Amino acid sequence: MSRTAENSQGKSTDILTQLSNILPTGTFMLFQALATLSTNDGHCGHTDKVVTGVIIGILSVICAFSCFTDSYKAPTGVVYYGVVTTQGLWNPFFVGSGLPDVTGPFYTGGNGKYNLRFYDFVNASLSVMAFLVLSLLTAPVKTCYYPHIRSAVVNSLPLLVGAIIMIVSPYAPPARNGFGHAIPESATPASSSATTSLLRSSSTTSTT
């Protein structure tokens, strides 16, 4: 292998690692585990291809959906996860919670931070694009669907997608801290600990 080819392959591996970091936690790792089984480790028939395609589709939807979710830390220390809408952050547990800036199931505070915006759709598109590149270039998937694909395509496609994301990212607002994305430590009070569920995180604070 020539030095140029080695450099190209190294860059593409670095980009793949960076792309996996923008996906919901564990999404790509889960796919890697499932892909080995669903493709029969690359030796797949028609049924295996259909099952793998369904898995890719489901996880792509999860990646897109997570871009439309966010989290809100209440004054009590409880972290609420919800879906961003034109009316604010939607979470059925807001109803009757007595929290400030809550109207029915919507949290309307945050100066519009939790309102649905154009860049949510952009981020969802980029997230799905990143996941598709990662999943379709996974070794057993390549062997299953297109065993004779040229190495130049394998090496250049991640670079192209990575370049698109790098161009768009500087103009995007801060990423949301929704499902599958870590919440900054500063967002959680040091005096409380939270255990999360799908739509609500209940925290228990113990005092000594």
From TrEMBL:
Location(s), subcellular: Membrane
Keyword annotations of the record: Membrane, Transmembrane, Transmembrane helix
KW Membrane (keyword) present: yes
InterPro entries in alphabetical order: DMP
Annotated membrane topology: Multi-pass membrane protein
Annotated segments matching region Disordered: 187-208
Similarity annotation: Belongs to the plant DMP1 protein family.
Protein name per UniProt: Uncharacterized protein
Organism: Sphagnum troendelagicum
